[in-house]
Amino acid sequence: MPPIIRFDQVSVTAHEKTLLANISFRLFAGEKAVLCGKSGSGKSSVLRTLLGLHPLKSGMVYFQENPLTPESVQSIRSCTAYIGQEPILGAENVREALLLPFQFKIHRGHQPTEAQLIEVLQRLQLPENILDQDSNRISGGEKQRIALARGMLLGKKLYLLDEVTSALDADSKQVVFDVFSDPQLTVLSVAHDPEWLERCDIIFELEAGRLTEVRRHGNT
C-alpha cells in the first residue's frame, strides 16, 4: 500500500530563511504522527507546505503518490481538515460555522440534519445550546472542538493538527483522543503534550528545519 503523504528531500525557504531542509518521511493511511521540536524548528512549516502554502525550493511532496503542484493542491485541501491552536470559524455563530462548508459546491446537497449536528456535539462533549452562541464568545478549547466537529460532519479522513489539545481540560482532551483513535483517520500533528505523543504511532523530531530523528511508538 503506498503512503498517503510522502515528503521527498523537501526544502523550503522564505525571506532568505531556511524553513525546511531536505525533509523526507512517509505517512500511511490510518497512522497518527506528531512533529516535535523547539519553537522555530519547522513543525508548522511542514503542515503549511503540505497544504501548498509554502513553495518548494527543492524536492517534492506527494499526496496519494501524486505530486503536489499549484494545480493539484486542491485535491489535498478537499480531503483535509486543518485545526490550529485558535481556529477561525468564519461565521457569526456556531451553527453557521458548522454549516459554512456546505454552502460550497463540492459539499452542497450534503448538509447535515439538526440531529446530526447535535450528535457530533454530544460526541465532543459540547452542549446543544452552543449552536446559537456567538463564535467570538466561546473559548479556545470550544473552538478547537467545533473545528473538529466540522471536519467530522464533512467526513474528513486526513487531519492536520497544530497543538490541538493545548486549550483542553482533561475530560475534553480524552474525548479528542477517543475521536482520533479511529483507525480510518490519518493524523499529522504538531504537539508538545506528552499524553498526545504517547498516543501517536510515529514521532518526528525536528531541529532547525531538519528531520533529526524518527521514532515509532514503543521504540527508542
- Give a count of the beta strands, DSSP E runs of length 2 or more: 10
Average pLDDT reading: 91
Can you tell me the CATH topology?
A: Rossmann fold
* Lateral strand order in the biggest sheet: 6-7-8-3-9-10
Order of helices and strands: EEEHEEHEHHHEHEHEE
CATH class: Alpha Beta
Shape: globular
Distance between the termini: 26 Å
- Please tally the helical runs, counting DSSP H or I stretches of 4 or more residues: 7
Please name the fourth-level CATH homologous superfamily. Answer: P-loop containing nucleotide triphosphate hydrolases
Uncertain segments: none
Oligomer: single chain
Query: Any idea what the CATH architecture is?
Result: 3-Layer(aba) Sandwich
Structural class: alpha/beta
Summary keywords:
ATP-binding; 28% strand; globular; four-stranded antiparallel beta sheet; alpha/beta; single chain; ABC_transporter-like_ATP-bd; 220 residues; six-stranded mixed beta sheet; Rossmann fold; ATP hydrolysis activity; 7 helices
Question: What does this 3D model show about the protein?
Answer:
This protein has helices spanning 43-50, 73-79, 94-99, 114-123, 140-153, 170-180, 194-198, and strands at residues 5-14, 17-27, 32-36, 58-63, 66-67, 80-83, 158-162, 186-190, 202-207, 210-216. The chain is α/β, with parallel strands linked by helices. The protein has one domain (5-216): P-loop containing nucleotide triphosphate hydrolases (Rossmann fold). α4 (114-123) crosses α5. The radius of gyration is 17 Å and the shape is globular. The chain starts with a strand and ends with a strand.
